[in-house]
Design a protein that fits this description.
The complex is a heterodimer.
Chain A lengths: L4 E3 L2 E4 L5 E6 L6 E7 L5 E8 L2 E4 L8 E5 L5 E5 L8 E8 L9 E2 L3 E5 L1
Parallel strand pairs in A: 2-11
Antiparallel strand pairs in A: 1-3, 3-8, 4-5, 4-9, 5-6, 7-8, 9-10, 9-11
Chain B lengths: L3 E3 L4 E4 L4 E7 L6 E7 L6 E7 L2 E5 L2 E6 L4 E6 L8 E8 L7 E2 L3 E6 L1
Parallel strand pairs in B: 2-11
Antiparallel strand pairs in B: 1-3, 3-8, 4-5, 4-9, 6-7, 7-8, 9-10, 9-11
The chains are: A mainly beta, B mainly beta.
Chain lengths: ~120, ~110
Amino acid sequence: GAGVSQSPSNKVTEKGKDVELRCDPISGHTALYWYRQSLGQGLEFLIYFQGNSAPDKSGLPSDRFSAERTGGSVSTLTIQRTQQEDSAVYLCASSLAGQNTGELFFGEGSRLTVL
Amino acid sequence: QKEVEQDPGPLSVPEGAIVSLNCTYSNSAFQYFMWYRQYSRKGPELLMYTYSSGNKEDGRFTAQVDKSSKYISLFIRDSQPSDSATYLCAMNLGGRRALTFGSGTRLQVQP
């Protein structure tokens, strides 16, 4: 597809379960970002990939959160032992390498609800 | 204190009004300033970006940056119901670094 694709669009899970969220960036975009958006809040940065490496993972809130990117394309964000405070919309964005202007292209997000 | 402060609104205006949306920030090293628009249950989309102080106009939208005051604004002229969305300011330090976002202002334009 032409845009950033995220799956699942909605995920309801029980506290303590692990979840995996997937992001398929725009073809050719080497930079990939994960953000989290809680109700009424702005976007909270989680992690940034350049190719397959993650030069900035400073936003991951705890060691229950991890992410990987393979083949310079698809990325997976994994949350282990989910807690209720993990409920949020997880947004993925991609951009062209070398762009300093901050033009990120966002997917529609994965809405996570932890019961 | 957050690095970027933005009034959450909601802001309700009649169709045709001029809308002013604002953000203040604390880090003087920010170089690039953007406004994103987010419709309900959608991802944000870039509306405008500016580098350094000054104004930038694009159709009904004008972005203004005052680095000396650490203050940025977005003006919408002749607002339309289709402008109803959440507007997020964002900024970064340059290079391939993550954006820092404001919390967003929800705008409702009444027909």
